[in-house]
Amino acid sequence: MIFEENNKAIYLQIADRICDDIMQGKYDSDNRIPSVREYAASVEVNANTVMRSYERLTSRNLIFNKRGIGFFVSPDAKEKIRCEKSEELMQKQLPPLFRLMCNLGISPDTLKKAYFDFLSVNGQSV
C-alpha cells in the first residue's frame, strides 16, 4: 500500500482503505476480513498499526470481533460509511471547492458538465 504523504496517521489511512474496500464490495457484510497479521503483511506495516486501525473501525461499529475467529464486517457498515463520507464531503471538502470555483469564475453548469463527462468516461451513471 502506498501511503499519502500528509499529516494523516498511517493507521487512519489503513482504516480509510478498509472502508473503501467495504464500499466497493471487496468485504461484504458479515464476512471475515483479513487477520491483523495478514493485513499487516499485505501493506507492509507493523501489526500494531493495523490493530489500531481495526480498533478504530470497531469503535465506529463498522467491523466486529468474534473472539478466536477474527474480524467481520458489520451488517450495516456500508450504509454507515456512505453516510459518514457524504457528510464529510458536504461539510469539509465541498466548501473549499466552492470558494475556489467562485474565485475562478467557474459556474455550477461548468461543474455539472465536468461531472457528467467524468461519469461517461468512467462508465458510471448517477
Features:
126 residues, Arc Repressor Mutant, subunit A, two-stranded antiparallel ribbon, 5 helices, 61% helix, 6% strand
What does this structure look like?
- The chain is mainly alpha-helical and 126 residues long.
- The protein has helices at residues 10-23, 36-43, 47-59, 77-104, 108-121; strands at residues 63-66, 70-73.
- A two-stranded antiparallel ribbon has the order 1-2.
- The model has no long low-confidence stretch (mean pLDDT 94).
Q: Do you know the CATH architecture of the largest domain?
A: Orthogonal Bundle
For the biggest sheet, the summary is: 2 strands, antiparallel
The CATH superfamily label of the largest domain reads: Winged helix-like DNA-binding domain superfamily/Winged helix DNA-binding domain
Helix content: 55-70%
Q: Radius of gyration, rounded?
A: 18 Å
The CATH class of the largest domain turns out to be Mainly Alpha
What is the oligomer described by this structure? single chain
> What is the total number of structural domains?
2
The tally of beta strands, per DSSP, is 2
Structure class? mainly alpha
Write the element-wise H/E pattern from the N-terminal end onward.
HHHEEHH
Based on Cα principal axes, name the global outline.
Answer: elongated
CATH topology (fold) name of the largest domain = Arc Repressor Mutant, subunit A
- The portion of residues forming beta strands comes to 5-15%
